[in-house]
Write a structure and sequence with these properties.
α17 crosses α21. A hairpin with a 2-residue loop joins β18 and β19. The protein is an alpha+beta fold. The chain contains 24 helices and 20 strands. Strands 7, 11, 12, 15, 16, 17, 18, 19 and 20 form a 9-stranded mixed beta sheet that branches. The structure holds one RNA strand.
RNA sequence: GAGCGGGUAGCUCAGUCGGUAGAGCAUCGCCCUUUUAAGGCGCUGGUCCUGGGUUCGAACCCCAGCCCGCUCACCA
């Protein structure tokens, strides 16, 4: 761009990005304003680029920001402000602007908070006021002046007075494209994800429907006060979520919270996690994202290729096997917080790239990790929310969307945990209406479980009528999926020999658990002792060879974390890997696909007894922010690229280049 | 991959029985020196997702497709 030209002609490519004639015209009008701003700057000796796209602005006092100003002067009276006349210079984005003849108000948004400006022609002088009149919604400006209160008591920065050496109003950057609705923000969920940059500075967190009673959600209320104090003087000292939640009625519905706040909170969660582990002597490490063998979990990997070495590589599906290599290497306590990639479906609970915390501790077992987990979640919640109470909508699969919308969020106390073995959980949540729940004995062997299932199905049919669909329809109230139901049916129909190997037996127990118990686990629950068949990396229980020392914890109806005493017998590990491979060949696509022989070798050098755990950070963030979709806690969730339907047009739309 | 819902101005949304396409905000012009979802007056802005079909006539009815959301499946 030539240096003395502020308003250069548009590059063709940019022009192609306009979505409409309206945007094109809008852009051209803003260009004309930029030219006028350049002309005003020239009068002050500024080159066009210095006037239109200056490269810095100094806040006064140095380091201050709008949130600080708001809290520092929250209780200052008009008289006190008048007496102080402290000079303040801040910059920000204009999110509201009102011109009133020879004066005007504007609202600046900076660091997530707003500050009103008052500009009078008499205070700033003619040229500066001319500049003010050229400002638009979305522009960035810097201002200097002193604080005052308006007639209605709002803390306001009065711009000016003009001094020869110091500008009172500095133009910083122009919004060349029209902004979303200044009041309701972006309502289009798709646009919120695709153009998160807009979502972040326009989202009020209150949808049109939800705004009727935003204060009914205690969590939202407290957040709104701390993040955007609309009436700081009225609320006095910040009220914590805890005091509100104990005195307010439960929220009627989940109100979407502002995107910015969610991601500020996400950062706080990561900070708290790191603090927790750092202060306990864990070393934060970074292991490879590019794996020759994508191990440590059962999932389809993303494939890629390294050109120089000419080898295929996979994005990692889990860091597990590398972290345990580090424990072999003598790092007794390690943790990693990083992305995993799984080439599988997207949903409100799944994004192809997601953030996982994994940590390993030598000389610990799964019992130690249960205690640690409770402590960790309690700690993080308190750090982030100042309370262990959170509200979350129960994601019951059987509820239709309409019911879900009207469903009251459930109050969850992250300081109160229960522990159930997987077998106990199945027994406890069994729907006993048509057939009796199993007893511990029934899980004792493949034969026992088979006998129980046959018996239970017979009972269920008789309790209803002979044509009743089948046992599992009743047992799980249709939450059992069709494919699984068929699987059960075929097992029962074909007899024990169809699944006499212990794998099938273990897998059926795990499936029963998922279908019967999982959705009930709203309050923090540790589910321990898993079948060996579904746990190829866990250590077997000494007294029960079909069961392993493993637990998962569930909050809000879904799994947040998974932990176990690590299998450290190299020969056993190799056998289990080979068995997984065998399962894979036999059509079980949940089994691991490839053996990491170097990992087996590493175990061969001796892994101490070790406990390890993985926690889904996105889901934890959902829980602590009351977000119902994982896309609300990931800044840029994966979306199908937008393509312009007009394929016959000679140039593609700007969006399609993403 | 399947089912349900949605797609109308830059944004948020109405749209009657199938009969010329609407509002608020934003934009543009004018007025207004304590407003605050400022206000007043006037204007501008549309591939009604796309492509077919029915019809004298389609935003609306039918068919196909695209995208998004939710649910299911897979998974954490």
């Amino acid at each position: 761009m030539p240096e003395n030209q502020s308003a250069t002609p548009l590059p063709d490519q940019f022009e192609a990005q306009f979505e409409s004639a309206f945007e094109q015209r809008f852009y051209n009008e803003r260009l004309e304003k930029l030219e006028k701003i350049a002309a005003l700057g020239a009068a002050n000796g500024l080159k066009p680029l210095e006037a239109t796209y200056p490269n810095s602005f100094r806040f006064v006092p140095e380091g201050i920001d709008v949130p600080q100003i708001r809290s520092l002067y929250a209780n200052a009276t008009a008289e006190e402000l008048e007496a102080q006349k402290a000079e303040i210079a801040v910059a920000g984005r204009i999110v509201a602007i009102r011109l009133q003849g020879k004066a005007g108000f504007a609202t600046l948004l900076q660091n997530g908070e707003r500050l009103q400006l008052y500009v009078r022609k008499d205070d700033v002088g003619e040229p500066t006021f001319e500049l003010y009149k050229l400002l638009d919604l979305g522009d960035h400006i810097g201002v200097s002046g002193s604080l005052m209160r308006t007639r209605t008591g709002e803390l306001t920065l009065k711009v000016g007075p003009a001094t020869p050496e110091k500008p009172t109003l500095t133009f910083l950057s122009k919004a060349m494209l029209p902004l979303p609705d200044k009041f309701s923000g972006l309502g289009d969920i798709e646009l919120r994800y695709r153009r998160r940059y807009l979502d972040l500075f326009t989202d009020t967190g209150e949808t049109a429907e939800a705004s009727s009673e935003p204060a009914t959600n205690p969590v939202i209320l407290s957040e709104a006060q701390s993040a955007q104090p609309k009436n700081p003087e009225a609320s006095g000292p910040a009220t914590t979520a805890e005091t509100i939640s104990t005195t307010s009625p439960e929220p009627a519905t989940i109100t979407r919270r502002p995107a910015r706040e969610v991601f500020v909170k996400r950062a706080a969660i990561l900070r708290a996690l790191r603090h927790f582990f750092d202060s306990r002597g864990y070393l934060e490490v970074e292991t490879p994202m590019l794996h020759t063998v994508a191990g440590g979990a059962a999932a389809r990997p993303f494939g890629t290729h390294h050109n120089a070495l000419d080898i295929p590589l996979n994005l990692r599906i889990a860091p597990e096997l590398y972290l345990k290599r580090l424990v072999v290497g003598g790092f007794d306590r390690v943790y990693e917080i990083n992305r995993n990639f799984r080439n599988e479906g997207v949903s409100t609970q799944h994004n192809p790239e997601f953030t996982m915390l994994e940590f390993y501790q030598a000389y610990a077992n799964y019992h130690d990790l249960m205690d640690l987990t409770e402590e960790l979640i309690k700690f993080v919640a308190t750090e982030v929310n100042d309370t262990t109470i959170t509200f979350f909508t129960h994601p019951n699969k059987r509820f239709s969307q309409q019911i879900l919308e009207s469903l009251a969020p459930v109050r969850i106390d992250l300081s109160k945990w229960q522990r159930l073995s997987m077998r106990q959980a199945i027994i406890q949540f069994w729907h006993g209406e048509f057939c009796q729940a199993p007893e511990m004995e029934d899980f004792g062997s493949a034969q026992n479980l088979f006998d129980f299932l046959v018996r239970a199905e017979k009972e269920a049919r008789e309790a209803r009528h002979p044509d009743a669909p089948d046992l599992f329809h009743e047992v799980s109230e249709a939450s059992l999926t069709e494919s699984k139901r068929q699987w059960f049916q075929s097992v029962i129909a074909h007899g024990l020999h169809a699944w006499e190997d212990d794998k099938q037996y273990g897998k059926i127990i795990a499936t029963l658990f998922e279908d019967i118990a999982e959705e009930h686990l709203i309050q923090p629950t540790i589910i321990y002792d898993f079948p060996l068949a579904v746990s190829p990396l866990s250590k077997v229980k000494p007294d029960e060879p079909e069961w392993v020392e493993r637990f998962e914890f569930y909050i809000g109806g879904f799994e947040i974390g998974n932990a176990f005493s690590e299998l450290n017998d190299a020969a056993d590990q190799l056998r289990r890997f080979e068995s997984q491979l065998e399962d894979r060949k036999n059509g079980d696509d949940e089994a691991m696909a490839e053996i990491d022989h170097d990992y087996v070798r590493a175990l061969g050098y001796g892994l101490p007894p070790t406990g390890g755990e993985g926690i889904g950070i996105d889901r934890l963030t959902m829980l602590l922010t009351g977000s119902r979709s994982i896309r609300d806690v990931i800044l840029f969730p994966l979306m199908r690229p937008q393509t312009k339907a007009t394929a016959q047009e000679e140039h593609t739309h700007g969006e399609s280049a993403e």
